[in-house]
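Lab notebook, design round three. We kept the backbone fixed and only want residue identities now. Task for the bench partner: fill in a sequence for the structure below.
Input C-alpha cells:
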C-alpha cells in the first residue's frame, strides 16, 4: 500500500516574524502547485498564524513544535493545543529530542502531550530516537520501544489514524552525522513491526514514519529509497527554501 510521503521543516528557535513570513512564501513558491506529498512547516509559536495564512490554499500545512498538556490555566509561558488549533495550525511535534533533553520532557509528559493534541484534533508527530551511548551499547530498539510504549499506552488505533512517527537518532540531529539509509531503515522496519504487534498489520502498513537527523537535499534520495521511510523531519536544512524543496522533491511522487 502506498503511503503518501510527508516531509516537515522544524524551524526550531530560528527566524523573526518577517523572516518566517518570507521563508513560508519562498517554500510555497519553490514547491509550486504540484502535490509533492504532505508538507509541514513548524515555525516558532508566535509565527504560527502568520505562516498558516501565507500557505493557506496550498499543499503546505503548519504545525507547532510543542504544546502543554493542560487545557488552560496558570501556566506562564505555556501554549495549549486549543491555542495552536486557533492559529490555523493542524499538526504538532510531540517529544522532540530537544524537548526531552533540554526541557526535561519525560516519556510520561510526552504521553500527556500526545493525548492533549489528540483531544484537540491536532495531528501529532511523535518523535522517538536513541542517544549515541544507547546506540553504542546496543539498546536502540529497547529505547524506541519504551518511548512508543509509554506514549501510546491505552490509545486505540482509531484515535491514531493521523499519527505520524518521526525516528530521529539523537546523535544525528544537528551534527551533520546522518544515519545511513540502512541504519535508518532497520529502525523504521522495527517500529513498523512494533506497531503491527501493538495495533494491527493494517495500522502498521498505513502509519507514516519519518526519518530525522541532518537530512539534506544530497542525502534525502537515499533515505527515501528505503521501503519503510515515508518522509523526513528536517531541522537546519529547512531554513533554506531551496534545500527544503529539494528534500521534498526527493520523495516519491504522490500516486
Ligand atoms: P537537523 O534536525 O535536520 O538539523 O539535524 C532535525 C530535527 O531536529 O528534527
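Proposed sequence:
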Amino acid at each position: 500500500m502506498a503511503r503518501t510521503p510527508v516531509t516537515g521543516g522544524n524551524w526550531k528557535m530560528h527566524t523573526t516574524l518577517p523572516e518566517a513570513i518570507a521563508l513560508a512564501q519562498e517554500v510555497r513558491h519553490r514547491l509550486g502547485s504540484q502535490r509533492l506529498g504532505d508538507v509541514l512547516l513548524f515555525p516558532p509559536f508566535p509565527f504560527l498564524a502568520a505562516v498558516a495564512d501565507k500557505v493557506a490554499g496550498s499543499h503546505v500545512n503548519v504545525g507547532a513544535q510543542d504544546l502543554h498538556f493542560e487545557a488552560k490555566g496558570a501556566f506562564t509561558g505555556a501554549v495549549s493545543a486549543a491555542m495552536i488549533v486557533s492559529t490555523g495550525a493542524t499538526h504538532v511535534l510531540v517529544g522532540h529530542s530537544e524537548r526531552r533533553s533540554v526541557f526535561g520532557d519525560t516519556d510520561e509528559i510526552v504521553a500527556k502531550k500526545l493525548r492533549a493534541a489528540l483531544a484537540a484534533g491536532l495531528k501529532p508527530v511523535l518523535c522517538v530516537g536513541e542517544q549515541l551511548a544507547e546506540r553504542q551499547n546496543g539498546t536502540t530498539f529497547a529505547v524506541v520501544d519504551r518511548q512508543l510504549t509509554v506514549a501510546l499506552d491505552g490509545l486505540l488505533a482509531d484515535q491514531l489514524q493521523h499519527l505520524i512517527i518521526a525516528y530521529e537518532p539523537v546523535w544525528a540531529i544537528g551534527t551533520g552525522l546522518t544515519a545511513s539509509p540502512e541504519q535508518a531503515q532497520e529502525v523504521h522496519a522495527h517500529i513498523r513491526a512494533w506497531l503491527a504487534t501493538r495495533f494491527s498489520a493494517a495500522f502498521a502498513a498505513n502509519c507514516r514514519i519519518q526519518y530525522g537527523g541532518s537530512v539534506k537535499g544530497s542525502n534525502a534520495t537515499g533515505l527515501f529509497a528505503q521501503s519503510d521511510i515515508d518522509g523526513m523531519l528536517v531541522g537546519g536544512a529547512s531554513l533554506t527554501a531551496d534545500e527544503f524543496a529539494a528534500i521534498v522533491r526527493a520523495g516519491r511522487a504522490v500516486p
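Keep this in mind before ordering anything: The domain at 6-253 is CATH 3.20.20.70 (TIM Barrel).
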